[in-house]
Amino acid sequence: MLHFNLIAAVCQNSGIGLNGDLPWSLKSEYEYFTQTTKRRSDIIKHNVVIMGRLTYLSIPKHERPLAERINVVLSTTLSPIDLPKDVLLFPNLESAMRRLEQTDLCERIETVWIVGGSGIYREAMSSPRCHRLYITIIKQHFNCDVFFPKIPNCFKEIEPDPETPLGVQEEHGVQYEYKIFQK
Ligand SMILES: NC(=O)c1ccc[n+]([C@@H]2O[C@H](COP(=O)([O-])OP(=O)(O)OC[C@H]3O[C@@H](n4cnc5c(N)ncnc54)[C@H](OP(=O)(O)O)[C@@H]3O)[C@@H](O)[C@H]2O)c1
User: What are the EC numbers (predicted)?
Assistant: First the structure.
């Protein structure tokens, strides 16, 4: 069975989004997201990023699809012609995962990342396929209209990866910390 990890930045009031965008502007935090989802030990393989329609559309046009990763969008309202040719479209998470593990693509995949938003995070955390949660805990309240679901009790914090910056980070007076949880 093909597994996945999840990555999200979550503020103190559990928010992740506002008006179709991130509620904050944290350059280094976004760089951590990019580096983590790109990182692979075998350069012949690729990582996959799976996201909902609104998360895909929240990425600035010139930055999407996310570079050096196979982009998968979940939507029941978009059709393939609405997306660049190299973006894969599926109606739900399980159909995307089944297709990824069935095709010859599977041998070329290193890590599958779930990158939001809210409903997909919820579905992902309740799936037996879910291995790790990479959560940036932002130690501040932000006005938000999209929220991260409650993390199920079966996930426990583990030691950070060697690549994870340790301790409290700070940008523009906003403090945050990188955490990893595993089932
Ligand atoms: N802080 C973070 O780490 C982070 C990460 C990602 C996104 N965000 C923010 O979150 C917001 C977008 O997230 P969102 O939750 O509003 O939307 P979303 O999950 O990105 O997109 C929702 C759409 O995805 C499709 N979908 C397919 N399967 C789904 C499923 N299992 N559950 C829910 N939707 C599914 C549906 O599209 P159809 O209606 O076409 O069927 C649904 O309307 C933006 O503000 C973005 O900036 C923050």
Answer: 1.5.1.3
Active site residue 29: yes
- Alpha-carbon distance 58 to 53, whole Å? 9
For residue range 14-44, what is the model confidence (pLDDT) as tens digits? Answer: 999 999 999 999 999 999 999 999 999 999 9
Total domains in the chain come to: 1
Q: 76 in ligand 1 pocket by Cβ < 6 Å?
A: yes
For ligand 1, atom 36, the nearest C-alpha belongs to: 75
| Cα-based distances in Å from 85 to 71, 72, 76, 88 | 11, 11, 17, 8
Domain of residue 33: give its range.
4-182
77 CB within 6 A, ligand 1: yes
For 91-143, the pLDDT digits (tens) are 999 999 999 998 788 899 999 999 999 999 999 999 999 999 999 999 999 99
Q: pLDDT above 70 covers what percent of the chain? A: 100
Ligand 1 geometric centre to CA of 162 (Å): 30
Mapped onto helix, strand or coil, the DSSP state of residue 158 is: strand
Summarised one tens digit per residue, pLDDT across range 136-162 is 999 999 999 999 999 999 999 999 999
Which residue reads 């060697």 in tokens? 162
Query: Cα(23) to centroid of ligand 1, in Å?
Result: 15
